[in-house]
Amino acid sequence: MSAASTETSAPLPTAGSRVFFQGAPVVGCVGSGPITAGDDPVQRRQGKVTVKYDRKELRKRLVLEEWIIEQLSELYDCEEEEMPEVEIDIDDLLEVSSDDERASKLQESLIDCYKPTENFVRDLLGRIRGMRKLSAPTKKGL
Predict the structure, then answer these.
(1) CA atoms in the 13 A half-sphere facing the CB of 94
(2) What is the pTM for the complete model shown?
(3) Lowest-confidence pick of 60-64, 68-72, 77-81
(4) What angle do CA 79, 84, 90 make, to 5 degrees?
(5) Burial code of 105-132, b = ≥16 C-beta within 10 A, e = fewer?
(6) Measured on CA atoms in the order 23, 28, 30, 35, is the torsion positive or negative?
(7) Angle subtended by helix axes 118-128 and 99-109, to nearest 10
(8) Which of 5, 67, 83, 129 is found 20 to 30 A from 18 (Cα to Cα)?
């Protein structure tokens, strides 16, 4: 059996995994009368949306975020669920021009940590060096 015939015999995805667009109501147009019992006002049109992401950059970001969570767990001596709310915005750090400013932003975020944070800050700054800010995804086929 060829790959093409395998794809055509595969079951269709469930409605929960599809994107639907609802048609806009037509107001004041010729021939647009009241909705009759045969019309379905909730009828949906199926649309297909494809988005292209920079997978390599996303993968780097995911690995970095996992590393940050692991390091914060060690710094705060607790599991992720018990950790205090610490916001470290990588894109925000990448917008800052100097490492000194980045380090000071990170130190502000970690003000409640009782353990020394200098090694974490230094390591994080080393890891984000060369990364770029994630841009909004681009749509294919436009």
Answers:
(1) 13
(2) 0.57
(3) 77-81
(4) 95
(5) bbeebbeebeeebeebbeebeeebeeee
(6) positive
(7) 130
(8) 5
